[in-house]
Structure formats: structure tokens, C-alpha cells
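assembly run, all chains below
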Amino acid sequence: MADTVNNALDPQLDRRGFLKGCTMAAAALGLSDAMIPKLVEAAATAERPRVIWLHFQECTGCTESLLRSSHPDLARLLLDIISLDYHETVMAAAGHQAEQNLHDTVSKHPFILVVEGAIPTKDGGIYCKIAGKTAVDILAEVAPKASAIIAIGTCAAFGGVQAAAPNPTGAVGVQDLVSGKPIINIPGCPPNPVSFLGTILHYLTFKRLPALDHLNRPLFAYGRRIHDHCERRPHFDEGRFVEQFGDEFHKLGYCLYKVGCKGPETFSNCPAVRFNDVGVWPVSVGHGCTGCTEPNFWDTMTPFYERLPNVKIPGSGIIADADKVGKTILGATAAAVGIHAAVGIGKRLIKGKDQE
Amino acid sequence: MATYEKHHCWSVLLRLFHWMFALSIVFLVTTGFYINNPWTNTMIEGSLSFPMATMRYIHYVAAYTFSAAVAIRLFLYIFGNAQERIWDILPFTKRNLNNLKMTLLQYSYISDKHDERLGHNILAGLAYLFTFIAAVIMVLSGFFMLYPEASFWQGWGVMLFGNQQFARFLHHLLMWWFMIFAVIHLYLCIWNDANEPEGLISSIFTGAKFKHKA
Ligand code: HEM
Ligand code: HEM
Ligand code: SF4
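ok done. output:
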């Protein structure tokens, strides 16, 4: 059995916490409990993979949620099973020394690259520079040497808020710039730490990456729609909806569909894995899903409190509700039909019907 | 007094397509509105009710009818009779371009002349083709929403629409085309029936049109 007590691992991480973290990851991965010892073994004995963590256009929220999970064991476990050679938020080195570490790892060792944040491409990429180099250049230098790339958060996966229309900096996700490397997207704003941990443990245990969907998201975490695992779903099927935040139906915990919940359009394990170790997620506390794990969510999931996006008529500055546009056009059509009929009847009254 | 000849024009399959299409759309639009805005909310609570689940179920039954109709029309565009094939209504030949012009002039009351032909006039044919394309998009976006986890639909859906919400938005917007089309379509069918002696409306039931004897 692996040494999970003291030697290889952080002395502050006790065995109970260690097993708990592995069990959570196994549950998230959908593995049977028979597999837990395998995960434990892999986490404790495998050579710790080197990880380079690059930050581009982001808010560091993904890192924060990972490190400050109220459950310290999770973050500690994560930091113990990987060797985090470069991470701007938590590394001890600074300045030239930090850059040196980056270069050493890139040129001398196999490593996993984690990217947090979008990459701006406009105007030569000048909107994000670190140590005098643009994000585009840094990625182009590091990515080809990585054995696999994990894009953590919606920004690194799909561009995120920076890429929202009109996307002033030309921000894109990693998969738009890098090809020929396995890329795993773990989107979310922020994503659940368990989804990240599960991906890493899967890699350590099975020596390969988890199965992905068409957007390169691991199926174990993004294989189902929120709506299909939501605890308010019976209210949806039986037609009980919140009409307005704070109304009587809101207090009764009815479905949030009519106040814009995007659960029916969003893939994530939020209702199953939940957050902050107290079993909460947005819908459980009365706020609809905002669709943060989906591409272009700032453009297509907004307004967050309406069911559908607004129609923007280019050039006119008109932004209107889809049904208003539809009703207007249908009304105009009906009016045109009426006028056409009236003209026809008028003409016939004046000219008389043609003889056959 | 003019004499008329009865001509067979629409096959049974086309007529079947028409009524599958038209009737399913009535259900799809009605249930579609309900799905977008389940207005009954708790009004019918206490009875045996799954209003949202039921409306969605009706939507899907109608959707399969609609999809089958679309498949029939696709078949007829290629293998149907002379009036049903797609070449008959494409404005690429001189004769068809002329018909398009004549139809526009007639509909705008500038000319009284009717360019007689057995199948659809070109303007109608193009409107039907456009509706057919819109119907294909409804089917694609609809199945993408219905089977979001199926790899086949996910692959196509993500490629065409980007995400579920955009598919839904397009699905909803295009619904308005079917309502607008229905208004114009019914009006022009009645208009033609009243102005021309070919028996247009009954043709979609019987398959036969009446033409001047040559
Ligand atoms: C002319 C044909 C159709 C019309 C007018 C129509 C209309 C609509 C409308 C208005 C909605 C509500 C969207 C919203 O605003 O939230 C909807 C939802 C939907 N439709 Fe259709 N639809 C049509 C055909 C189809 C077809 C062919 C399918 C194929 C299966 C389909 C499947 C769906 C699905 C899965 C939903 C989402 C329901 C949910 O998630 O609750 N529809 N449709
Ligand atoms: C009671 C209602 C309706 C009647 C009496 C009717 C009648 C007709 C007639 C007479 C035609 C042949 C017209 C021609 O030769 O150009 C036709 C064709 C057609 N109608 Fe309708 N219609 C009805 C409802 C609808 C509705 C609700 C829709 C769909 C929104 C629809 C869609 C079509 C289409 C797509 C065609 C073209 C058939 C083809 O592809 O060749 N109809 N209809
Ligand atoms: S709250 Fe949202 S995810 Fe839950 S059932 Fe309602 S619409 Fe679906």
C-alpha cells in the first residue's frame, strides 16, 4: 500500500483528507468504489507530473476557487499530486528566477500545461504581456512542448468575457490557437475544483485523458445537462414556476425557468457535485443557471433573467425581444394582406370582372 | 364559354406531405409558445397534470410528423413527378424567369395576364423552397435540443449553432416565419382560387387542376 502518511506527501494532509479527496474525484468520474484504491495508489506513488500554469486575460477566479475551496484537503491534495513548477499566483520565485524555472521545465522535462485566461490576438497581441512577451508568443513557445493542455475556466476554453461582443482585444481560447496537442477544456466561471482534480487523477491512474465531448470537455463532468439533474425539475414538468424573484413561488422553491434559468441549455455537473462543501449551487439558493460552461455564454445566455437573447438589428441600434420583432412583422404582413385584398376588390368594383 | 381539362398535378405523397406539414405546424407553434412561456403556471394545480411535460410531449410527436413530412418533400424534390421536382420551380430557365415576372406583375395588379402552368408558379415555388430550408433548420435545431447528449446531434449542433441556447434562439425566431408564411399562403391560395378558374384549393385535396383546353 502506498505511503499516504508522511513521506511523499504534505504532512498537513492527513490520511482521512487524502482518501476523502480521492473518493470525491472517483465519484465525480463515475468510477465504482472498487477503483478508489487504484486512484489512491496512483496519487500517492506515481511520479508527480510537472505542471506549468499560465495566466493570461483572466481574473484569477479559477485559481482562487481551486485554492480556497473551503475544504483545504482538496487544494492540498491537488498541490501534492502535481509538481507546480510555474504558477504566478502561488510560486515562491519571482522575476528572472521565475522565468528561469519556466524555461528549465519547458526545455528539459515533459509537463502538462494548464492555461487560465483568454489570449488576445488583436494588434499583435499587445493587450496581454508578461515579462515583455505577448500571451500569443508565450503560448506558442510553451504549448508545442506540452504533453497535454488543460484549459481551465471558460476564458481559456472559449474566450470568456473578454471575447464577448464586440471582443475589443480579439480574445480567443487555447483551442483556437493550438493544434496537434490533446486539449481538455474545463470551462465554468469558475469551474468546480473537483472536475479539475478528477481530470488529473484520471490521467495519473489510467495514463490517458478522460473521454471528451465535442467541445473537448470531459464527459464525466460535462456529459449531462444541468436541467436533467436539477432538484427543481419536478416543478418544471408539473408547471410550477417562479414569476419574479422574491415572489411567493420563489419562496416555495419552484423552477426558475421563467426568470431565465439556462439549465436546459447548459452542460455541467453542478447539481451533482455542488460547491463549497456545503452542498450548494446557484439553483439551490434560488438563482437560475447562467450557462457559464458554454461557448459564447456572455453573448447567447444574456439577458440572464430572460429565456432568450434579444434580437439586434445591425446598423439600426435596435435591440428588441424576439417575440416583439415577430409580432411586428406578422402584424405588418397581415396589414399588407388586407391592403392587397382591398386594392383587388376596389379594382374589380371599378373595372368589373374580366370575362372568361 | 371556355372549356377546361382536368389534369393530374399532385401525387398522393405530395398531398400527404402537405397535410402532415400544415397540421403538425399548428401543433408545433401552439406548444412552442407554451414551452417558451408556460403561462398556466399553477392555475391547473391539483388536477392530474404535467402541463409542461405534456406540451413538450405533444411538441415532439408533432415534430416527428413534421420531420417525416420534410423527408417526404426532400424525396419528391428529387424523385417526384414533373411538377414536384425542384427543377420545375428554380428560376433558371427563360420560361421560369418569365413566369416569375408575370406572377409579380399579376400580384401587384399591374397586369391581368396569368401565365398558365400546371405546377406552382415560380414565386410560390421559391417561397415553398425557402420554407423547406427553414423546416430543415427547425429539424436540425430541434433534434439538437431533443438529444443533446447524443454524439451525432451534438457534433452537428455544435458545428452549426455553437451552443444549445443559440439553437433555441434560432428555433424560436424561425417559428415566426412559419406563421408569416401561413398568413400569406392562405391569402394567396384564396386570391388565386377567386381569380383563376384552375381550382387551386381543391387541388391540394384531389391532386387535380383545371386548365384551359388547348
Ligand atoms: C415549424 C416547426 C417548429 C416550430 C414552430 C417549433 C417551435 C418551438 C418553440 C417556439 C419552442 C420554444 C423555444 C423557446 O422559446 O424556448 C420549441 C422548443 C423545442 N422544439 Fe420545436 N418547433 C418546431 C419543430 C421542431 C422539431 C422538428 C423538433 C425536433 C425534435 C423540435 C424540438 C424542440 C425541442 C426539443 C424544444 C425544446 C423544448 C425544451 O427543451 O423544453 N421542434 N419549438
Ligand atoms: C387550410 C389551410 C391550407 C390550405 C387550404 C392550403 C392549400 C394549399 C394549396 C392549394 C397548395 C398548392 C398551391 C400551389 O400550387 O402553389 C399548397 C401548397 C403548400 N402549402 Fe398549403 N394550405 C394550407 C395550409 C398550409 C400551412 C399551414 C402550411 C405551412 C405553414 C402550408 C404549406 C404549404 C407548402 C409548403 C406548400 C407547397 C407544397 C410543395 O412543396 O409543393 N399550407 N397549400
Ligand atoms: S431551475 Fe433551471 S435547471 Fe432546474 S428545472 Fe428549472 S429550468 Fe431546469
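Residues A 264, 307-308; B 25, 28-29, 32-33, 35-36, 56, 59-60, 63, 66-67, 138-139, 142-143, 145-146, 168, 171-172, 175, 178 surround protoporphyrin IX containing FE (ligand 1) (CB under 6 Å).

Chain B touches chain A through 43 residues (CB under 8 Å).

not gonna interpret more than that til we talk
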